[in-house]
Amino acid sequence: MRKVRPARDFRRFVVVGDSCAEGLDDRYPDSEHYRGWADLVATELERRHPGVHYANLAVRGKRLDQIVTEQLPAARPLRPDLVALFGGVNDLLTRGCSAATLHGRVDRAVGGLTEICDTVVVFTVSDISRQSPVLRGLRGRIGLLNGAVRHAANTHGATLVDLASQESVDDLRYFGPDRLHLAAPGHRRVAAQVLTSLGMTADPAWTAPLPGAPVRAGFRSHLQWAWQQAAPVLVSRARNVVVRRQPGDGFAAKRPHLTPVG
């Protein structure tokens, strides 16, 4: 495994990936812009060692093969000291995605990033299939993705943030309305885990249990979610197939240039 560089050396922080790296569903207060775990990490790096520059090249909807061909070439000339990759969920939602395909895409993404930067952070994903009967069909694919991420992290010397073991997946307060993207409390927990993986302490409030009992979905809320959230996504994906529209078309990175955090 590669050694993690001291925090003071993380002067150029670059994030690649999909909507989970972009920051959906964690909006800044009184703003339409998304914050997310990556912005939180960047702000904390800047607080500790002023002068950090940060770019977020992630684009919602992107698969790992798109991340490799579109975002890695954009990340290379930025000469990052720290790179984080959060992606793979959109691959799980693609018809015909096989174990071999997943492993190949993950390996190319992680391996490519470790050629660009010494310190690369990657993530397993939470088992969201536990939240709804509609999602149970994803359980096997989630396991395949997480296995591929662990193998690639070990092979290429990346730093692994293991979200697969998080019990918070059973509490819907950590997730947005679609039960896929994290809400603000979920993003804070992920940011804390990233900082911990890099040898830094995080605000204890970010990982403190939420007050009250966990919120779990009942039968009626499952039906409401399926109608209001799942069905429109399925229709949109079917329409994209018909018109040959690629995931992420029409969207741009929220922070495409390496600019000061402060």
TrEMBL record:
Database matches in InterPro entries: GDSL_Rv0518-like, SGNH_hydro, SGNH_hydro_sf
Which segment of the chain is annotated as a signal peptide? none
Q: Which GO terms describe its molecular function?
A: hydrolase activity
* Superkingdom assignment: Bacteria
UniProt KW keywords: Hydrolase
| Annotated ranges, domain SGNH hydrolase-type esterase | 15-189
Q: Does the keyword Hydrolase apply?
A: yes
What the entry lists under CDD domains is as follows:
SGNH_hydrolase_like_1
What is the protein's given name? Answer: SGNH/GDSL hydrolase family protein
State the taxonomy lineage. Bacteria, Bacillati, Actinomycetota, Actinomycetes, Nakamurellales
